[in-house]
């Protein structure tokens, strides 16, 4: 069964919350509101329809970047997998709609944003002696170059 992919455009209506799973995987969640806007030719004005609320969940690096970049009130575009969950409490049925985000960012039709690229740590730079040992043991490297590197 394939997932339902959606793209939502709306506003963040809650603070971004962070959590970490027991296995150390970061998670960021927030609520967003999506409301249709239509131009009413009779009144020559834009009208806003009823809002639909979604919970957005971002995992791993997307979660880390979301925590640093997204704030309550920001206009955002979210793409991800749609999930609907129903439950019952006190004889009342409830439904929540969630999106597991695969990409998200600011809605640039409503403002500007500054992008900062993050780099994954280079394992060779974290432990240089280990990187040297690996480089010296490389059988494709000429023997003279290996000796000079030591």
Automatic annotation (TrEMBL):
Key words of the record: DNA-binding
PROSITE patterns the UniProt entry points to: SSB
Chloroplast listed as a keyword: no
Keyword DNA-binding: yes
Cross-referenced InterPro entries: NA-bd_OB-fold (IPR012340), Primosome_PriB/ssb (IPR000424), ssDNA-bd (IPR011344)
Region (Disordered): 110-150
GO molecular function (one): DNA binding
A Pfam short name: SSB
SUBUNIT field: Homotetramer.
PANTHER family linked to this entry: SINGLE-STRANDED DNA-BINDING PROTEIN
UniProt-recorded name of the protein: Single-stranded DNA-binding protein
Organism: Yinghuangia aomiensis
